[in-house]
């Protein structure tokens, strides 16, 4: 049975491997910072987060709840602290708006060691959950639970993580590109070479009505494939693969049930016919529920090979609308570019979205 910890409590660890996971009602990311005796990182590899899922002795886990696995014996000798950080994926949300997160620490074989509830949070979207401290040849766990309202980027740079200047192709911390509508990013340099595969992810949670009755909100992700201003192909819930096979849909989720991404679409850019000039990604609400009624609704674009997050957005910004044009990938000479659109529309089916998409080509 797990020992119950409280904020500020310290305990000596008797295991060499452990996993820290977090249970929460909202979508959450868990990160780790490897720090020296001065509380600073040694370099960019010492930040383990959604765009860099592993580092020396540490890796992110993808079980029922997000977490991080830590092999204490594998940590470099000049790492004196491992700091575990939580952040809400919805950057407009606050921990104080929801039930508090529950942190669980398990040893080898999933053996429960500790558990504690991070309560007393307010408008923060980021929390420093705990530290693991090296004490001679041993390690201890120190419960923190401190909210950090300046944001995740400010937290990691405050610990010395180097930051790439805008437009740099490599080096330094680069989180998801928070593109505002109309902003664009070239994709040719993402992996020191051509981006070949992109993945759109859509996620949302079931809505509870009166008396805890579940309201089945059915959101649909679609990729509309254009040659000029004409739709020539698509991948959507009624056609899971485009005719060329370049775009593939994971399958229709009708109520948002299940953890993580509910629908995904992968597009192999190299396999798109030469006549294709753009792929536009849209989200529509099949039963006409507006986005303001949907919980934890997000979209995300990833590098489909490495899994690196390129850009993401929050569907709640759509308000009283039933659809959104979220992003497009289009040819620009010999390279591909991505544009964030994020414009709400009224559409319950991707066919209804087509006339409203054309203006963004």
UniProtKB/TrEMBL annotation:
Pfam families referenced in this protein's UniProt entry, alphabetically: TerD
Domain TerD: 23-157, 178-345
Regions that span the bilayer: none
Name of the protein in question: TerD family protein
Organism: Nocardia jiangxiensis
């Amino acid at each position: 049975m797990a020992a119950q910890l409280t904020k500020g409590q310290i305990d000596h660890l008797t295991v060499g491997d452990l996993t820290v996971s977090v249970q929460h009602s909202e979508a959450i990311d868990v990160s780790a910072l490897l720090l020296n005796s001065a509380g600073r990182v040694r370099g960019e590899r010492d930040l383990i987060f959604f765009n860099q899922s592993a580092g020396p002795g540490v890796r992110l886990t993808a079980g029922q709840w997000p977490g991080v696995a830590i092999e204490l014996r594998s940590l470099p000798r000049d790492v004196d602290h491992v700091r575990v950080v939580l952040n809400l994926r919805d950057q407009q949300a606050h921990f104080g708006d929801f039930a508090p997160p529950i942190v669980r620490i398990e040893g080898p074989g999933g053996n429960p060691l500790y558990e504690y509830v991070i309560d007393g949070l307010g408008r923060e979207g980021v929390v420093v959950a705990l530290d693991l401290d090296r004490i001679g040849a041993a390690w201890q766990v120190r419960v923190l639970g401190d909210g950090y309202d300046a944001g995740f980027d400010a937290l990691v740079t405050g610990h010395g993580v180097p930051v790439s200047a805008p437009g740099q192709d490599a080096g330094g911390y680069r989180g998801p590109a928070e593109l505002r509508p109309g902003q664009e990013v070239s994709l040719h340099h993402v992996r020191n070479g051509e981006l070949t595969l992109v993945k759109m992810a859509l996620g949302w949670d079931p809505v509870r009505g009166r008396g805890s009755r579940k309201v089945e909100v059915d959101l649909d992700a679609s990729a509309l494939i254009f040659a000029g201003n004409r739709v020539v192909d698509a991948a959507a819930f009624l056609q899971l693969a485009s005719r060329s096979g370049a775009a593939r849909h994971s399958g229709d989720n009708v109520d948002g049930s299940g953890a993580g991404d509910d629908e995904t679409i992968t597009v192999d850019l190299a396999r798109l016919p030469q006549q294709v000039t753009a792929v536009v990604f849209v989200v529509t609400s099949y039963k006409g529920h507006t986005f303001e009624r949907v919980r934890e609704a997000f979209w995300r674009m990833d590098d489909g090979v490495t899994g690196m997050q390129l850009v993401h957005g929050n569907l709640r910004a759509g308000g009283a609308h039933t659809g959104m044009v979220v992003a497009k990938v289009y040819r620009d000479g010999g390279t591909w570019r991505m544009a964030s659109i994020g414009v709400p529309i009224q559409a319950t089916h991707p066919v209804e979205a087509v006339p409203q998409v054309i203006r963004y080509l």
